[in-house]
Queue: 4 jobs
Job 1
Amino acid sequence: MQVPSKKKISYPVQAALRGYLRSFAREVNLPIEYNALRRFTECTSLLDKNGRDTLWQTVIYSAEEMRELHHGLRHTYGLLKASAESSFIEHLRVDRIDFCEFGNSQPFRIRIVNAYNDNQDYFYIKKADASRVYGLELEHLLSPNRILYFIAKDTLVEEHIVGIPGDQFINLHLQDPGFMEVRIAKEFVKFNERCFVRLLGDMRPCNYVVDVTPDFEEVQYRIRPLDFDQQCYEGRRSFYRPQFFKGNNPLVHFGMKHMDVQSMRQYQHEEHSLMALRMRFERNRLNWLIDAMVQDVLAPLEKVHLLRTELAEFYKDDHFLKMRTMGELLKHSLESIGRLH
């Protein structure tokens, strides 16, 4: 079973990455900082509808602290969703603040409720980490998905990614009426390739969601990452392939059941072609991001050496052995796909 080697080291956002983020309006002035949310006075375990511990804790603040926080959180949500238009946030209220101390980014999850119709939404405030920021931006540029997030100093604000948590989908929904095994198998192959080519690791079922979309005749599935902390961090090649995590075995088995080698290669080729197309469309922006990444330290040196050896063996390309940083390895991986398409 694939597991991280140890708790991930957090790396600060350096000047080159900040320059990129500022130029593309990802760095903004926020009305609240991460550390302000740490000043809670009480917490209680948050249970799911079946009474199981979710590993999140609902946190409570003093009355004065709560008033200040709620004002800042409403404006932060408005900035994320509607450029902080004041009329947009007047009818919003902060319904609950949850904290997870087990995540690398130690996130806070804020539930926002519309006072007119009780519609709810979520967003997250986390400690900024360079690996995660690179992962979010690469997801935005190279995947079919778009990501809303902002950074200010050491605070990271992210939108909520909608979908069924991967472990819940596998445990509860594989027997649903109309479930299409072949569709989820195809999507898992594509997801596996996206993660590997862009070196996004640790895609256990708890770290992605499945977005289910009814089509006019059947159902479409898209797998979306939730956790970007392991972007270009681990040294083992298999850690970047979701197929090698034990929890994903049911989806792997669907692929073995419904695909031959030729079909699987077709779907891999399709995803590589789409990634190459996105790289061409976003060439200038992507090059700027990768240039910043090449300068950054994102993993211990021994992990870089291990990964470059394994990638050189996989691709049969000794140029990987010359790379000195995770950014260089990612750059050469993307260039390999670009040259093929």
Job 2
Amino acid sequence: MTTSPTAVRFDDDTLWVSLSDGRTIAAPLTWFPRLLQATPEQRAQVELSKNGLHWDALDEDISVAGLLAGQPDLSTRGTQQPA
């Protein structure tokens, strides 16, 4: 059985994804720089698929599997120095 996203919401610091199995995943927006910098209107333009989330205008794709694994946006890794 594939767990798919059913809803997405944001607060000031967090991406919240509701899943078809009843769970809700929270991930810090700092993991996704394009979403962090986006306006609320841009964030609202999300497309849900059986495997994840897509924002066409932001060129952002987030998989449910990646969220469940605690995986941040890897496209910017290597450009930041460890804290």
Job 3
Amino acid sequence: MYIDTSFLQRCVKTLEMSLKLLNESDNESIEYDMYRSACVKEFEIILEQSGKLLKKALKPYFHSSKEADRLYFKDIFRHAANHSLISIEQAERWLKYRDNRNNTAHDYGEGFAEQTIVLLPQFIVDANSVIQAINSVCDD
């Protein structure tokens, strides 16, 4: 089975660069606002793409593809941990990332953005781990 992770990998690299530039910017500058917005958007894209691709990677663990297709986001990460694709601790963090996104979905102000920025260093590590997990399933 082949799952193309190239878009997800590019999004993670984009997030890494955006976060680097954000951290180098003056908090009061327009550049800071631009990079913060880019970070939040990449966070959202990576969150969705990770769930989508991990669901595909989980299909061999189910009796049918339809069973896997019915999984909701949080179930995907729970099953990934149950099948040792990611650790339980990573799965718990992914559930928190999703909660961050869901709890603040209608609040696109500075508060939401700053809450998300705090999560990003570990999120990048976890996103790279998911990419490795997906690729390892494909290599089997």
Job 4
Amino acid sequence: MGLDYVPARVSAHGGHSGQFCLHAEDELEAVVLAYIAQGFVWAGITEHMPPMQDQYRYADEKEAGISALALQKQFATYAAEVKRLKQRYSGDILLLGGMESECYPGAFEFALELQQRYALDYIVGSVHHVREINFDFCPAQYQAAITACGGIDALYCTYFDEQLTMLQALRPAVVGHFDLVRLYDPDYAQRILNPEIMRRIERNLKYVCDNNLCLDLNMRALAKGASEPYISRPILVKALEMGINILPGDDSHGVSSVGYGIDAGTALLQDLGYACAWDNPGAFIHTRT
């Protein structure tokens, strides 16, 4: 690439909306229009997969009294709306319709069933649960996961073990926020150097590399006050050294967060020598279509 090369604005993991997600805002069409207004070449719309059972609902869904069955019906509406928006705005932006997976008993089979049923382009493979506890929703749940695992180092080890199980079951085109487990840990920079934790990180990166998956450089961490995105720099450097492809994701949860951090993430990758030549998503994301 020449010195004057300007990478395209893209997001492989984003497009949550208040229309289909209680902890997001705005209609999905408004989110899509925001991507178009910001000059995105392509964007992945990757709403959360619905829970299989009531026990796996997010805290806000439980508080709102929305059943798993109702959320499953809502997901069918989501899939239809993504298809409509893909067609309506095909002259302005390439939209990929997908979903973000979960990690609990039965979730992988259900995710693959949903992908086939609704002809979704791809899956973002994420881990939000450890020992069936949704650890990323609030500090109290994070502490509950630590307790369930027997300590914070054990939480990290369990997280990366469950992530590997997810990777093997789904082989997701994009691996979402690889080190999300660090979310409420102010000492994560030192903790990931623990040999038992780093061994698991390197093992999972090798699986990603060997299976030609992509990592999500998730910029939403900055919006939540973190000093760096997911993936943290030491892990990102290892991934790039292994030749793993990276795609930026704003993990947008409404119009106001569309494009958040994408330019900063692109600059970070360029500084590390990555080409950022992701104009054609088909070269990175192996879709159904």
